[in-house]
Amino acid sequence: MSQETVHELILRRHEKLKELYGRGVEPFGEKYSVSHQAQEILEHFEELEGKEVSVSGRIMTMRGHGKAGFANLQDESGQVQIYARLDDLGEEAYECYRLLDIGDIIGVKGKVFRTRKGEITVSITEFQLLSKSLRPLPEKWHGLKDVELRYRQRYLDLIVNPQVKKVFILRSRIIQSIRDFLNHQGYLEVETPTMHTITGGASARPFVTYHNTLEMNLYLRIATELHLKRLLVGGFDRVYELGRIFRNEGISTKHNPEFTSIEVYKANADYHDMMELTENLVAHAAEKVLGTLQITYQGKDMDLTPPWPRMTMLEAIKTYSDYDFSTITTDEECLKLARKHKLEVYNDTVRGEVINLFFEHFVERHLVQPIFIMDYPLEVSPLAKRKKDDPNFTYRFEAFMAGSEIANAFTELIDPIDQRERFKKQVEKREAGDEEAHMMDEDFITALEYGMPPAGGLGIGIDRLVMLLTDSPSIRDVLLFPTLRPREDTGGA
User: Fold this and answer.
1) Domain count along the chain
2) Contact 103/116 with Cβ under 8 angstroms?
């Protein structure tokens, strides 16, 4: 549909608007009493046949001329056909009906019947215009050329693509199933600040804002971890928070600057408990919402049935690259090997960081089936407890599916002395130019000095989990309003 044609259609609709006003019709009406949704009428036709119903929705198609015509009315549940006839509506009302357009929202009342072609229909005896659509709906919406417009004008996407609406209904149900699962296990849902005086809890570049009265910078949270751990210090045994996280990073099919995560903390637990919690939580959500643990993501079949396999990071690297970092022990050897594979390293990059780079480069894309990768290097895990048998590694895991990380968890570091030293090293990296390194959080250290019980902590990326359970290729497909670069032309369909 060319812009010129769109402009002409908009002008025509404005002319109809004036005519409706001239006929005494309010084009932007009031609430309408609805007795049934579209899908209810279709599903319960036998008991509703011949009975009067009232339904409201958006006109999606119009057919017929002269003294009668059909239209499809769409509400949240689906579509139902309506039949408008001059003899039933009367001349004045029927003339107003003829001024309606595709996209208009109306309420109708009439009797349910089945047409000769077998389609369940409401033969209307009266209608009310609830909202006049002054812009035409897009005629052709599907296809890659329209993807960006779909994200920019999600309201249109929801109107014309029923499958898109289904994804967001499933998203809501997945989130509710997660809450139900945790609540049933005795976890308490809490809320912690979105604006922090110190950024921490993850390695990420924050968004910075300014508080005028306090005359100080504040940071939109990059994680909820450090506040939730304070609650364990305060005596809560099981807590979780599900909410928005903000990271000043790039945009990709797996990343959006604003996203949703859940973090869960349990006293007297470790990362093995968090593995069990993760696999059971994901399985519960899939079973509850999809009715199965066998899913397909972008053509790849996956089995979510617990227990999921466990593999250490060093084992995974050895399996997929043939490099054995248990025998490559010096920073110099690791740097030489990293440069050989053109990985991004610096002169001060150490062995643990190289191990993590090798994992990302050689392993991640192969992790299709659900799996836990355990025992991450100390240098990339500043909040996780050191392993007893090898203090260069930590009790940390990440869960992977379809080549993407969906969860991150630790046996939590509760030693305030060790934590302070880890923060110091992060501060050194930050002072050297790493904007994603942690800041020194003195209040969190103070909290640990009062004593935090042994604990396990878990973070799950809700958006990535929803992508997997709805077979959505991009994070933008599961965010109602993803972040996009502004552009001037956002008005036309």
Assistant:
1) 2
2) no
305 and 179: one domain?
yes
Q: How far apart are CA 321 and CA 365, in angstroms?
A: 12
d(CA 488, CA 490): 6
The verdict on whether omega for the bond into residue 307 sits within 30 degrees of 0, i.e. cis, is yes
Angle at 377 between CA 433 and CA 335, to 5 degrees: 65
* DSSP E strand stretches across 76-157: 78-85, 105-114, 120-131
Query: Are both 300 and 392 inside the same structural domain?
Result: yes
What is the percent of the chain where pLDDT is above 90?
A: 86
pLDDT digits (tens, 9 = 90+) for 101-128: 999 999 999 999 999 999 999 999 999 9
User: Which domain range does residue 274 map to?
Assistant: 159-309+369-477
Could you report the per-residue pLDDT of 261-281, keeping only the tens digit for each?
A: 999 999 999 999 999 999 999
Residue 396 and residue 292 share a domain: yes
Structural contact between residues 113 and 123, judged by C-beta atoms closer than 8 angstroms? yes
Q: Is residue 46 part of a domain?
A: yes
387 vs 149, more confident: 387
- What average pLDDT does the structure give for the chain? 94
User: For the whole model, what pTM was predicted?
Assistant: 0.92
Is residue 388 assigned to a domain? Answer: yes
Query: Are the beta carbons of 124 and 56 closer than 8 angstroms?
Result: no
Tokens 């005629």 map to which residue? 139
> Same structural domain for residues 231 and 118?
no
pLDDT, position 434: 86
Residues facing 81 on adjacent strands: 72, 121
Grouping H, G, I as helix, E, B as strand and the rest as coil, residue 155 is: helix
Q: From the CA atom positions of the chain, what is the Rg in Å?
A: 29
Asked whether residue 314 is domain-assigned, the answer is: no
What pLDDT digit, counting tens, does each position of 279-323 carry? Answer: 999 999 999 999 999 999 999 999 999 999 999 999 999 999 989
Q: Do 232 and 373 belong together in one domain?
A: yes
pLDDT(30) > 70: yes
Distances in whole angstroms, Cα of residue 347 to Cα of each of 334, 339, 385, 441: 11, 11, 27, 28
203 & 78 share domain: no
163 shares its domain with 126: no
In this structure, are residues 457 and 398 in contact, taking their beta carbons and an 8 Å threshold?
no
DSSP 213-280: TTTEEEEE-S-SHHHHHHHHHTT-SEEEEEEEEE------SS--SEEEEEEEEEET--HHHHHHHHHH
pLDDT at 123: 98
> What is the structure's pLDDT at 147?
78
